[in-house]
Amino acid sequence: MKSIQFILTIAFLTFSSVQSQGVAATPEYIMELTADWKGERFPDGRPKVSDALLKRMKNIQIEEAWGYLRRKGYHNQYEGDWKILHPDRVMTGRVVTAQYMPLRPDYKELIKVKGAQENRDTIGGSNSWPIEMLVPGDVYVADGYGRIIDGTLIGSNLGNAIFANSQNGVIFDGGVRDVAGLLEIEGFNGWYRGDDPSFLAEQMLSEINTPIRIGRATILPGDVVLANRHGTIFIPAHLASELVLSSEVVGLRDQFGFQRLREKKYAPGQIDTKWTSAIEADFRNWIKEYPDNKLPMTRKELDDYLNNTDKE
């Protein structure tokens, strides 16, 4: 009798869980996914990394971000081999994720019902749903499993809607159409696998703001993305601030090293290895004379970082 009651309880809980599953992740679920973030959040639960930090992130090199994340144990956050609308530009932002799958009629109908329950527009295509959720500073990141023909996630109309909401761009493991029109959207940028004249036909949206895979990277909603001509890297929100600061300090150390090499004060082998205490002391004196208005961070941030480094 007890075993039957246990089975019925599990069945009820499973049914309740299925019933509550929607297209978009709940704020509670997103907060569980990003529990290490201790700062402000958006109403949808995503970490609200500051605009000022996103701006500073644009000056960070992909290799520096990659190295920092690997030291923290995050080995699967980079993806390359993209077509880019404007390769000369850098894009940073807070990630909104979307998962797309090959079209299956019965599942598509369920998604439509779930979308209606979430008060989404069920007259147009569901590929507009993530776009409606974007806010300034967001980047729309979609797993389209590399499909291009009949898998073009946006054209110029949706591209304009994306930019109107986010003032930013997209990263699609899939296709786009009407590249000429997308190029005309001032300020918009996109990383994508290919372009094709076909419309979205054999692909359907399945989830919004859930974990997705883009090539060899795992992305969570609220991650910070750094995208440039060298690829894309997805940074957990709770690591973004320290990553930026540590990379900025590396940049300052590089400036110091280059200057001392030009002055022939040190040999290349001395700069290109772990610094001696004398060189480190020389750097600390050099950085004290660095103009505050040219530092990428505040003087307090720099001093605190260097003092914490001394303690390690």
Automatic annotation (TrEMBL):
One of its GO terms (molecular function) is metal ion binding. Pfam families: RraA-like (PF03737). Residues 1-20 form the signal peptide. Substrate binds at residues 155-158, 177. Its cofactor is Mg(2+). Keywords: Magnesium, Metal-binding, Signal. InterPro entries: RraA/RraA-like, RraA/RraA-like_sf. Coiled coil: none annotated. Mg(2+) binds at residue 178. This is RraA family protein. The lineage of its organism: Bacteria, Pseudomonadati, Bacteroidota, Flavobacteriia, Flavobacteriales.
